[in-house]
Write a structure and sequence with these properties.
By secondary structure, this protein is an alpha+beta fold. Helix content is about 15%, strand content about 30%. The strands form three sheets. A six-stranded mixed β-sheet has the order 3-4-2-1-14-13. The chain has a six-stranded mixed β-sheet with strand order 5-6-7-8-12-9. Strands 10-11 form a two-stranded antiparallel sheet. β10 and β11 form a beta hairpin. The longest helix is centred in the middle third of the chain and has 21 residues.
């Protein structure tokens, strides 16, 4: 099972070119995909629904999208726009695609700081996937870029969520006393212990945010450390800042729960990828 996280920078590559098919080709071999910085109906990306367009490159895959930023889409003729056009929202967020069914999904909002520096709403996208080895919770997020002071509250909220969500269970729990119509006759959706958190976390492995998340007693571990690798090694950076390629950082991560750590077989970063300013980060599970 190949899993990849990729901040696609709304498909703007290292050469400055917007190319969604190039992004899709870069991650074509993945079974579970977590994307960040996906646009829907922005003028900068030609009013394209990038979530739908990306899903069309993965026929047979289930997919969900969780908007962080959500605002009115630009309409050239708002007065004459039909209901479908008026329902379009200018969104920016995270996406999960899966070769296997996505049984349930949730969008969980994270704290947002109020600063003079540009700052967007952020969200944690949850997808419960019916994977071959058993159901799996997958979380994809993109934390604030500003600094530790804005990310630490987000990390604290994620820790709180991960502590409370298993008690709450899936999107419904229990049996309705009178009407099966509320569940459409389906059983209670699974809510497994096995989980993966991945995305552009905007912090490095030597940061306070990293230590807080992995030291919270949740059983999460950096997949790189599970593999016996040094996540601070220069050859494992995941962001190349343009136009200064000498500025590099490791800020994209895949964290795995304790129950999955024995299944992590290998991990790699595709530093040949040109489709974004970030590189895709991959792991393979048995």
């Amino acid at each position: 099972m190949k899993i990849v996280t990729y901040n696609i920078q709304f498909t703007r590559g290292r050469d400055g070119r917007l190319d969604l098919p190039r992004v899709a080709a870069t991650i074509a071999e993945a079974d579970i995909i977590g994307l960040q910085e996906v646009d829907r109906f922005w003028r900068r990306t030609g009013m394209q629904d990038q979530a739908l367009a990306m899903a069309e490159h993965f026929p047979g895959y289930d997919w969900v999208f969780a908007a962080g930023c959500d605002a009115a889409a630009h309409l050239p003729d708002r007065a004459g726009a039909d209901a479908a056009a008026r329902g379009r929202r200018r969104q920016h967020g995270n996406m999960v695609l899966s070769r296997w069914p996505i049984l349930t999904s949730r969008s969980l909002r994270l704290p947002k700081a109020t600063t003079d520096v540009f700052c967007m709403d952020r969200v944690l996208c949850e997808a419960v996937i019916d994977a071959p080895g058993g159901p799996l919770r997958v979380y994809v997020t993109h934390l604030c870029h500003i600094g530790p002071e804005t990310r630490l509250p987000q990390v604290a909220h994620i820790v709180e969520l991960f502590g409370s969500l298993p008690r709450a269970g899936a999107c419904w729990s229990g049996a309705h006393p009178k009407e099966a119509a509320w569940t459409d006759g389906d059983p209670v959706p699974p809510y497994p212990d096995e989980m993966i958190l991945m995305g552009d976390l905007n912090f490095t492995p030597d940061s306070k945010e990293y230590a807080t998340l992995l030291g919270a007693g949740l059983g999460l571990a950096d997949s790189w450390r599970v593999l016996g690798r040094d996540p601070l090694a220069p050859e494992d950076y995941s962001l190349r800042v343009i136009p200064a390629p000498h500025i590099t950082r490791r800020i994209d991560h895949i964290m795995v729960s304790e129950s999955l750590q024995g299944r992590v077989r290998k991990g790699w970063i595709d530093q040949a990828a040109m489709a974004s300013d970030h590189y895709p980060v991959w792991i393979e599970l048995s």
